[in-house]
Records
---
Amino acid sequence: MTATADGTTLWDQMVAAGREERERKANGYAVIERDKLEAELTPFGLLRWYTHPRLTGPNTRAIYFCELEILEGSRSGRIRHQGGIVHFVVEGSGYTDLDGTVHEWERRDLIGIPPRPRGVELQHVNTGAGRVRMVLAFPNFDSSLGAELGVALEVLSPAPEFAAASGRS
């Protein structure tokens, strides 16, 4: 029998976790207002998280969903990721460098980043007047594939605002 220090079994913990998750969902919220989201400066850029497995308020943890904001004349960080990410351009224009190929986009375009066994390298660049806002969504496969979705998530070069604020380049 596998029991923890407090005498509960793994089964007990699994049942309790299920109950806690049902309660969290029942008390969570379905509508998430952008104006109430805190902006987070990351190596990828300025993000606002709508849903994320670490957020307890939203009633779902099944998907990562955030907004990326890129200032005029700037770019996101260059990252390597498993892929399987969908981006919808809410505002602005520019291009995405995906594995060395440039793909131009503008407001209301959808950018589909394909999943690839060895991952993809990508970076978004704002070439328009004003900021770019795009929303990103990808499934939460963390429990089966790990937080990096099978390929190490690497920041190859950070967004300039992050580098300036953090002193890391």
Note: The CA atoms of residues 10 and 120 lie 37 Å apart.
---
Amino acid sequence: MPAMTRKKLPIGIQTFAKIREADYYYVDKTGIAVDLADSGSHYFLSRPRRFGKSLFLDTLKELFEGNQPLFKGLAAVSRWDWAVKYPVLRISFGGGVLGSVQDLKESLHRLFGDQRHRCPCQVCFSHGGEARLDKVGFVDPESSFGVWVEMPS
């Protein structure tokens, strides 16, 4: 009887591509990802720390970017339209503490600016409404693509 090779556990790995390409153990949740994409528009993912939120979001990113080879043998491969690719902007605030609204604005401006190569949009700041909300985001009038984050001033 040939020796059975064991896959490695993906401890601390939060990228779907690395897990799939290096042949780590992976519990297939891609069917759930497709269900979420097909059935709604806004989700709040609340799970305990170290419980797979980052990996799941990275899986969604790979789906929307149309990275089909990573999904070989998984539930999503036959349920996703691989001909359609979407731009994905990944924004993380895990890199440090923001001490003020101004720090947050500057951080968002840098984050959106770093993504310009992926999506030909412009960064927009505006004030409006009685609550004096400061809005920052991308707007592309030709494709009607936009991302906005509202912050109290």
Note: The helical segments are 16-21, 30-39, 53-64, 101-114.
---
Amino acid sequence: MLRYTGVPRLENAIGVDVEVLVRTKLDFDVAYIENLCIRGKQLSGALIPEHRVILVEAFDIWERRRFTLAHECAHLVLDFRNAGSPSLFESHGDSFICAPDDIGTTEDSPWQKRREVLANQFAAALLMPGRLCKQLYVENNSIDDCAGALGVSRQALQIRLNQLGLRA
């Protein structure tokens, strides 16, 4: 996706600006809601395709909000944008909702867990592109510097580096 649309960057010119990507390239709005709750369930994020909006919990830290937005972007790109193909994600009527546990992949259903793992992998690849992530880590050899440059949490970066075979 990024290869064809260009990559909007954060002010540091390194990290991917996922909000600009969602707003300008995917033509969806982003709303930050305090105490985001739908149908009595506390949420980290929700995709509401009918209204062309992604909702994100406003009280989460910046890095978590970015990851949640990228995660919801995955639901948009992998399911909603692929009309006619089998759904990768279970929708709740006209929306896709993700609780904190969903993003952490602790759902009981294997299919639900798989869809959330795919969304997390998409989010990680979007925010921490392999080549850029490797380059930053090799140049700095610092988790904190690399995480700061990419605008992600230390924990998310450690997981991504493990996936890329750079840390045990």
Note: DSSP finds eight helices and six strands in the chain.
